Amino acid sequence: MLKPKATATRELVSLNGLWKFAVDTGDLAEPWAGPLTTTLEAPVPASYNDLFTDSAIRDHVGWAWYQRTVRVPRGWAGERVFIRLDAATHEGVVYVDDVEVVRHEGGYLPFEADITEHVAPGAEFRLTVGVNNVLTPDTIPPGLVKELPGGRKQQGYMHDFYNYAGLHRSVQLYSAPATRVTDVTVVTDVDGATGLVRYAVETSGDAEARVTLRDEQGEVAATATGAEGVLEVADVHLWQPGAAYLYDLSIELVDGDGDGDGDVVVDEYSLHVGVRTVEVREDRFLINGEPFYFTGFGKHEDSAVRGKGHDDAYLVHDFELIDWIGANSFRTSHYPYAEEVMDYADRHGIVVIDETAAVGLNSRISGGIADLMSAFGGGGGEEGFGPKMAEAHRREIRELIARDKNHPSVVMWSIANEPDTMAEGTDVYFEPLFDYARELDPTRPVTFVNVMMAPPDVCRVSKFADVLCLNRYYGWYVDTGDLATAEVHLEAELRGWEQMYGKPMIMTEYGADTIPGLHSVWDQPWTEEFQANLLDMYHRVFDRVDAMVGEQVWNFADFQTSVGIFRVDGNKKGVFSRDRRPKAVAHSLRARWTALRDGRTA
Fold first, then answer.
1. Would you call 212 exposed, middle or buried from its count of C-beta atoms within 10 A (0-12, 13-18, 19+)?
2. Cα–Cα–Cα angle for 361, 478, 486, nearest 5°?
3. Structural domain range at position 168
């Protein structure tokens, strides 16, 4: 799905700001009818949970409603008019006045509707958006709603981060011609010093496509005519980790023969293109033919008050901290991040493992919610890995790849985080999903993230992955506080993976909860010294195992959770606090990672 943007033939109006807001207590009409009667206002984008002082809103289970008045620019006469939502977590429905125009499941990916027939240029309309935060055994991610005494509902789930809800990302109104570019797919390759940019343009209506590729100085690097083709770029500047170079691909749809004489441009769309290659070869991960070693983090879209609401200030500051610490990558744990994040990674040369929202597919990990463990019954059957979940999972993979396929920063797809791959039947569930991801994008490796309870002789799914991504907590959840024993066990397991599979391995999670300001002369869990010593232990092991191609600490920053006494005001495994202050370990990581980046010995 193309990201809306203003061009010579398209216009864009942001609908971000304060909207009327109300949670649905059962007395609101649905399908929607009429103005929303409320005194509450909520900002878009933002989660609604932490905005208000009323705990009934924070803990609400079900639909919440946003409403505002929108005026269509009068200059849009003769154009198609679209409403676009970058995300509605976890289900969204949109009404123009009293007419439902689109409904979408999946809380972290965009959806839109052509509303031309329901609005008039120069006139106002009432825009209402419903957002439903309910998770069930068939949704991605899964969950279970309980009804408590008194009729109050409680949402349970098996992912260890807070189930923030709302309009987390931008809402936009945009115009486009009736005959327009509807999709673009770009695949790059390199032949010696020549870059190859294969493109395919999809359109609504008949028009000739005229394609121009320009370098960062605006000079024409290559041109072509036709909906599909290959652009050859002499002396190509490659997109490199830490050294991004982006070409501009401009697509014009013309009414005419495309030779320029008398042609009328009916639509124009452009996107950035980074020329680079990605390959897994034996136990190496190669970018542009050179071995690449991942350093960085698992992250979360999470900050105080905003929850998962996208914020450009946090975007910039987080990337500055990533650069300061010497990291070169992150994983979008455990859902697709805002498109602004992906664009920024493209521009700044940060490598991304792009993950679906398939987290919590594991009844063996309760995160402290014991009743969910019994409710899901161990997985592997109709509940948890049934056909309805599989279809939702396919949708998540399809929509993620459709949105992010053209980002050079994205080097690998992760189709799930820590699923139960020990249970019988999970290989039957996952093999078609790996095949589907490769069918949609044969150019990138496909992986999933393996949970600690599924070592190499137990996991039924790792055989399908191109890269082994492992989450391990030796020294924290296992061998707690005993780093000497943890080091032996960690290395033994990594050697087992290396011997059994011979695939590249990335440690996608490792770390320890740490309270800023808590210190000790001993290896005492929760102290800043213990966190640093634990990571140092992991790094010694990584340096001894040849198949290791990356280390991504859990987590970039502390984040909010909702698992009772198991977490005290959230997960504290961050290298940075929730307000982005460095813990002691940030400085030791900086020494290691800047040395790796600069080719020095730490």
1. middle
2. 130
3. 11-176
Q: Of 147, 176, 205, which residue constitutes the final position of a domain?
A: 176
Do residues 361 and 378 touch, judged by C-beta distance below 8 A?
Answer: no
Report pLDDT for 364.
Answer: 66
The answer to whether residues 402 and 438 belong to one domain is yes
Query: Three-state secondary structure along 152-193?
Result: CEEEEECCCCCCCCECCCCEEEEEECCCEEEEEEEEEEEECC
C-alpha to C-alpha distance for 447 and 355, rounded to whole angstroms: 9
Q: What is the largest CA-CA distance in the chain?
A: 79
What single-letter DSSP state applies at residue 367?
T
In a shared domain, residues 230 and 341: no
Distances (CA, A) of 258 to 199, 224, 225: 17, 10, 7
Structure confidence at residue 381 (pLDDT): 36
The answer on 196 and 156 residing in a single domain is: no
Same domain, 373 and 463: yes
Residues 170 and 199 in one domain: no
> Which one of the listed residues 268, 487, 509, 551 is annotated catalytic?
509
Order of strands across the sheet that contains 111-114:
11-14, 171-176, 80-85, 111-114
Amino acid at 363: S
Q: Say if residue 538 is in the same domain as residue 594.
A: yes
pLDDT at residue number 377: 38
Residues whose CB is less than 8 angstroms from the CB of residue 404 and which lie 6 or more positions away in sequence, other chains included:
336, 342, 354, 410
Say whether both 262 and 379 belong to one domain: no
396 catalytic? Reply is no
Q: Are residues 126 and 224 in the same domain?
A: no
As given in the structure block, the two tokens for residue 110 are 């965009």
Tell which residue, 47, 572, 577, has the closest CA to residue 317: 577
How much is the pLDDT for 568?
Answer: 84
Q: Is 431 a catalytic residue?
A: no
CB 8 within 8 A of CB 253: no
Cβ-contact 366, 258 below 8 angstroms: no
Alpha-carbon distance values, 120 to 93, 235, 266, 438 (Å):
21, 50, 21, 43
Q: Per the structure block, which two tokens stand in for 308?
A: 């998962």
pLDDT of residue 1: 82
Give the residues of the chain that fall short of pLDDT 70: 27-31, 256-262, 364-384, 563, 601-602
Burial class (CB in 10 A: 0-12, 13-18, 19+), 375: middle
Catalytic residue among 91, 339, 418, 487: 418
- Per-residue pLDDT of 327-355, as tens digits, reads 999 999 999 999 999 999 999 999 999 99
Domain boundary among 122, 157, 176: 176
